[in-house]
Amino acid sequence: MNKFLAEFLGTFGLVLLGTAAIVLHQEYGFVSHLGIALSFELAVTAMILLFANASGAHMNPAVTIAFSAGKLFPARLIAPYILSQTAGAIAASLLLNFLFPTNEMLGTTQPSISIWNCFMLEVLLTFLLMLVVLLLSQNKRYGIREVAGAVGFVVMLAAFFGGPSTGASMNPARSIGPALISGHTENLWIYLIAPTVGALAAVLVWKLIKKV
Fold this sequence. Notes:
Distance between the termini: 38 Å
Strand content: under 5%
Shape: globular
Largest sheet: none
Number of strands: 0
Low-confidence stretches: none
Order of helices and strands: HHHHHHHH
Mean pLDDT: 97
């Protein structure tokens, strides 16, 4: 399968399934906060299992940039990967908007705390997620199933504990899609910059751990 198509489809699935849980909760109230967190966990786990062999299943521009900074991914593929991920996220939000045209937010990530507290929390959450990704994916003792399960679990914990404060994006593409299609881009910059900073910080720590 084409790497870029895999990234498109993986990000499409992640954003559609995750944000659909948010929209269903808002529209009908039968999806709890825990249910939303579990939806993101299952979506991430499933997409990694489906597409890891094809593209590495980054599904996240911050992850792609961090892998390249860590010399684990060719720089020439950064732009097409990010374009594929962003297109997948936008396509997912377009479909969700078609299905629920009256929903105002479509799962857009917005801070419920101060802007800079939100920024720092997104940095921290993405740092922890990326560190887990690096420690497991670069260890030959772990296969795709172990990596997918662990990464999904971290996403679930982050969504459960960080979701009410920041939306627990940890992924610029996940935030771009709903923000652009809903028109709520006022805080989008947080979710573009903070996850990237957190992912790059994780690379630095991972390199230090490797030297120990």
